[in-house]
Amino acid sequence: MKVGNTVAAYERSYAVEKEKDVQVSRYFGEDTFGVKVMMERLPKDVYRRVIEIIHEGRKLDLDTANAVAHAIKEWAIEKGATHYCHWFQPMTGATAEKHDSFIEFTDEGDIIERFSGKQLIQGEPDASSFPSGGLRSTFEARGYTAWDPTSPAFIIKSGLGTTLCIPTIFISYTGEALDKKTPLLRSIEAINRSALGLLRLLGNNEAKKVFATLGPEQEYFLIDQDYYYRRQDLVMSGRSLLGATPPKGQQLEDQYFGSIKERILSFMHDVEEELYKLGIPAKTRHNEVAPSQFEIAPIFEEANLAADHNQLVMETMKRIAPLHKLRLLLHEKPFAGINGSGKHLNWSLSDDKGNNMLNPGRTPHDNIQFLVFLMATIKAVHLHADLLRASVASAGNDHRLGANEAPPAIISIFLGEQLTRILDDIEKGKITKATDEAIIDLGVSKLPVLSKDSTDRNRTSPFAFTGNKFEFRAVGSSQSISFPATVLNTIVAESIDLIAAKIKSRGGNVNQAALDVIREEVKANKAILFMGDNYTREWEKEAARRGLPNKKTSAEALKDLKAEKALKLFEKYGVLTATELKSRYHIRLERYVKEIDIEAATLANMVQNQVIPAAVQYQGALGSSIRSAVDVLGDTKALKHQKDLLKTVSSLIGEAQKLTGELTERLAKSKSIESEEQKAAFFCDEIKGTMLAVRETVDTLEHYVDNELWPMPKYWEMLFIS
Ligand code: ADP
Ligand code: MG
Fold first, then answer.
1. Ligand 1 site: residues with CB under 6 angstroms?
2. What domains appear along the chain, each with residue ranges and CATH number?
3. Which of 120, 237, 353, 450 is the most buried (most CB within 10 A)?
4. How many CB atoms are closer than 10 A to CB 599?
5. What one-character DSSP code corresponds to residue 528?
6. What is residue 455's DSSP assignment?
7. CA of 464, nearest ligand number
8. Ligand 1 atom 2: residue of nearest CA
């Protein structure tokens, strides 16, 4: 193919002389029905009730719903909306919407726009095609969506259409959660109950509410749209299944934080403008380590809102990219041999006054509180490392975890030097009395809040304490953050309760009791702490000695979701019933199989329909050229290397053909495996290996075949031309 032709085709899709941008603060959130608009548009008493519903969990009554619905409709129509939709997050991990227009006939037969409280509160998408993991049999296939007032409604403009989107949960008529939001909301309640209980025990009577905060750092790739369309693998599976490593990858380290190219920056600008209108506080943008890889990170928000917003960030980027003739790749490993994409999930707990529970405090009392919450998180991760691992398991993330760029499949915690020393001191009994002086001596209050200590640059750790929050780094770039957050909230709620119970049972001075329990817990949970390089073989061995789980593939890791321990935990905290959790296990396992199935079939197609024909053509050209040379020169020695080249090409073609045949056979065989679990194992152990063998052969062939004949854009083109 012609090299670089897309560059000429690319024209600026934006006016360079853009009108002077309006200040962000002037239009931030203008497309959301947020608190400010509500205050302006709702009668005072209705407004107050809504605020109580949002902040205090007050029940919603129909009168309030009607008043809100009317105000939302008026507002949305002024913004140009013709339709509304209940926006929800089925277990596919994406978001779903079914649009209805506002129009209705009056008794007189005229058309008017109407939107009732009932329509706001509840919708009934005919959503029987969403995966339910056996939760619904077809005769009761309907689920319904219900308004989530804690996340504001918003307007989406796409092309010529303008739609009012109402964030909703999605549940079955028997009350089972069919989505990702419902369990997240339940886990938010669970952590609130447990954390408030602990705060009261420690003598904090001020906080009224405790909630998780999330800040997801979203990584992604952008490539030229023309290249994208010429790669069946990218279109079908979001990652390249073939492609030889280019001479230059990321070894020069010249991409990370480098200056951002004009075309990319324009894309980022457009994305941010859209996000600001939606009230999403996009804060950071930069080049990532791999060529054509970037990151966007928001200011952290309350967990439910942050989860909705991250879905909108992914969708908005997907929508804006084609306007710049680019395509967004959210896959965890779009290109073999260079870094993949993750989503560092920053997590902490905050009270309604804005106090961060993981902030080392200034007073001895605050410090005890900090240490207890820190310890609870450590204990939670130790008890349920398997669940955290399972929460990020996917076919895509398998390519990334443990691939020497992302955290390994072993979950451990990195605390940094100072905190490690403090916990050491407590454990060794250097501080035994919880007097104010003693606790100040611990040095907790000297911990630099926010500014991370110098050892914090341990990028190899999957779960790191970074100043005043934990950073869960194993999350995949394309996945919804809802489930990892649900798991975190739930396991920490449990550990908070376990620790609180221990403190309570000791009686006496509560600070002293807390300190004693912390000492015990440091001893009991030390195994999960690891400050070294997570990429080494030694760590793998050491982790095994410590009894830490190391599930390398999703097929294996997902099983922990249906273990007795998990079922009991989620049920106890009212987050997921056993049936709901099992359904999630089935859906994720099925998805794992389907994704690899699609990849394998795509690979076979590409090799058969594109690679082999091109290589055969090259083989033909080589053959004829050698024959003509013999005609003219006679069979001289000089032709030996050309004949060798022909032999190499021929044998690679043969090998590619043979391996592709094997792949196709195995795929056919997989169809007859009935158990989903055996199927997953088969895809993991057999199909993936064969795909890799096919790839190696084809990638070698790519080195030999004429560039003009090679039927798809190569890595160096996709990664470096934009
Ligand atoms: P780095 O790349 O050094 O980890 P970034 O600034 O890219 O840091 O991202 C840090 C993320 O953590 C941001 O999204 C930030 O808002 C978020 N964050 C900061 N404090 C908290 C907190 N208390 N709870 C949750 N997330 C937080
Ligand atoms: Mg970052």
1. 213-215, 217, 284, 297-300, 344, 346-348, 356, 468-469, 471
2. 20-179 (3.10.20.70), 188-576 (3.30.590.10), 590-720 (1.20.120.1560)
3. 120
4. 22
5. G
6. G
7. 1
8. 217
